[in-house]
Amino acid sequence: MMNNFLKYQFRNFGRSYKFIPPYVIYITWIMLLYVYKDIPILSSYGISFIVLTFISTWLTVMILQSDTLSEKELHYIQLQSLYKYLIGKFVFSLLLLLPLILFAIGYPVIMNVYDKNIQFFHLFLGVYSHISGCILGISIAFILANTSLSNKKYAWLMGVFILLISLLKEVFITYIPFLKSISWILPPFSEINEILTYGDNVKMNTTLLFNMGYTYFYLIVLVLIFFIIIKKSDLKE
To answer: Where are the transmembrane segments (predicted)?
Structure first.
């Protein structure tokens, strides 16, 4: 049943061509990013990961708003569960972003633009950051577009605002120190980015492991909070 739902989503959303603007913008951005050669590996992945996170929020909001009320009700009946419908939408969003992830990681390797030979650990961090960014962007879009926490019409803009604050939270803490005590509330956007700022000679260590563990702990909690909110709200309205 879920396979049929995903096939329908690809067919229906593909026919709308709504995916074209974010696809074109991101692919163009990546090609411009790697116009020059002999550039650092992880810092360039950091730029492409940041942009992809914003793109993932934008694309996911469009995906969530693509179904009419009657289509949603039909999917609820077919899948026999509101939660299965939401999980299907989440999986579809991630699958639709997968080509962009592969392009962001593979294009610079194929074009041989880096200033040193790329190692497996570089690829691992690149894949980790881009997938984590997509999951973060999707999760934020789900909460804003499916609940009363945000005006659905401006859900994407609110998502961009939250991501920007999360990315720059260390800057805010520098000028307003007391914010450090509540900074854990913000999504781990800067934590994911931090991994890519250690330089290309970085090795796996306890700091990286803690960073990765914290990121996915936060994402799991974020998803659980979303389902708790959904349970207490009326998504169908």
So the answer is: 20-36, 42-64, 85-110, 122-144, 156-178, 208-230
